Amino acid sequence: MRAVSYVRNNTVEVQEKPVPEIEADEVLLKVSGAGLCHSDLHIIAGGDDSPLVGSTLGHEVAGVVEKTGDAATGWDVGDSALVALVLSCGECDKCLAGRDNECEVASPRGSLAPLSPGIGSPGGMAEYLAVKTHHLDPLGDLDPATSAPLADAALTPMHAVNSVRDRLVGGATVVTIGIGGLGHVGLQILSATTGARIIALDTDKDKVDYAASHGADVALVSDADAASRIMEETNGRGADVVLDFVGVQPTVDLALSVIGVGGAIRFVGLGGGKFTYDADSSALPWGVNIERSYGGTRSDMREAVALVQQGKLHVETTKYSLDDAARAFDDLRDGKVSGRIVLVP
Ligand code: NAD
Ligand code: ZN
Ligand code: ZN
Known about the structure:
By secondary structure, this protein is α/β, with parallel strands linked by helices. The protein has helices spanning 38-44, 93-96, 144-147, 155-162, 181-193, 205-212, 226-233, 249-258, 298-309, 325-333, and strands at 2-8, 11-16, 26-36, 60-68, 80-83, 116-117, 120-121, 128-132, 136-138, 173-177, 197-202, 218-221, 239-244, 259-267, 289-292, 317-321, 340-344. Strands 3, 4, 5, 8, 9, 16 and 17 form a seven-stranded mixed sheet that branches. It has a six-stranded parallel sheet with strand order 12-11-10-13-14-15, with helices on both faces. A two-stranded antiparallel ribbon has the order 1-2. α10 links the parallel β16 and β17. The termini are close together. It binds nicotinamide-adenine-dinucleotide and zinc ion (2 copies).
C-alpha cells in the first residue's frame, strides 16, 4: 500500500509498505482521509536521526472497516469510524478517571507526545491502518474523509474549552489566538457552546475575516498593538480566558500580558514560545491558572462529533491526494492553507 513516510529532516515521501496484519481485537480500516496537522511539521523537523524517521505519519484518521479480527466485536465491515488520537490503555488510573489523554501507559512522563497513530505507532496517511476496536468511535452518516480532523483539530480545542467552561459565562471575555486548523474549530466551539464574548486573533488577514464571520465579537490582526486593543476591549480588566492555538513567542507573550486576575490560560500551540515565572513579581496577576493542554479525552471527541452531527460545527477541509503529500506539507508550512488539509488515499 502507499504510505506517507518521514524519510529525513523536513522531508516526506510516499512509499510502498505492506498492508498491516490485524490482531484478534483489531479491525483493518480502509483509510478515507487523514488530516495534516501543524504538529506533523514539528515532527518532521526532528532531524535525520529522530526515532520517528521511517514511520508513517498521520494522527487524524477516519475510514471504513474493511476486515474484522476474530475478537473484534461491535464493528462490521462497511462501518465508518474515527480513530482516537491517544492510543490509551483503557485500564490505568487516568483512563478510569476519564482522563485518557493523560493515559499513564500511552503518555509516560518525559515522552515527546502520547502514543498516537503517526506518533510512535503507524499513522493513517496510508491506504490501510490496523486499529484496536477500543480506539474507534462511530461516525454514523458523517463523511469519513472530511471527518478525519475531528480526531485532533476538533478534539483538542474541545478539550481546552471544556477545561475552562465554567468561566465562559455571559459577561466573560475569551481571547482565542490563531484561526488555523485548530483555531477555526475552537472559535466555532466557543461561539456555539458558551456565552462568553470572543476576541479572536490571527496574523493572516483572511483568517481575521473568517473569524469575524464565524462567531468572533471582535476580530483583530495579531500585531504589536493587539495587547493594548484587548485591554481596551476589556476596560482594563484583561481576559477571563486566553486560548493560544499557536504557541510562538509573540502569542505566549500576548497571552500573559492580557490575562486578567484569576483568569485561565490554555497553551495548546507548540510554536516554541517560552516564558519564565517570577515568584516575586506582579507581572502575572494573582490567581492565574495555566495549563499545557494536550489533545482531549474520548468524551471530548464524542462531543465534537455530536456538534458536527447537529450542524453546529463545520470543519473547513481541502482534499489533497495522498500522492501529493509533499506539496501539502509545503503548503501548510507556507501558510497557504485555510482550515485543514485532508490527504485522501
Ligand atoms: P495551522 O498552521 O493550521 O494554524 C496556525 C495558525 O496560527 C495560522 O492561521 C497562522 O496564521 C496563525 N498564526 C501564526 N502566527 C501567529 C501569531 N503570531 N498570532 C496569531 N496567529 C498566528 O496549525 P494547527 O494545525 O492549527 O496547529 C496549531 C498549533 O497547535 C501547532 O503548534 C500544533 O503543533 C499545535 N497542536 C497542539 C496540540 C495539543 O494537543 N497541544 C494538538 C494539535 C496541534
Ligand atoms: Zn495534531
Ligand atoms: Zn491508560
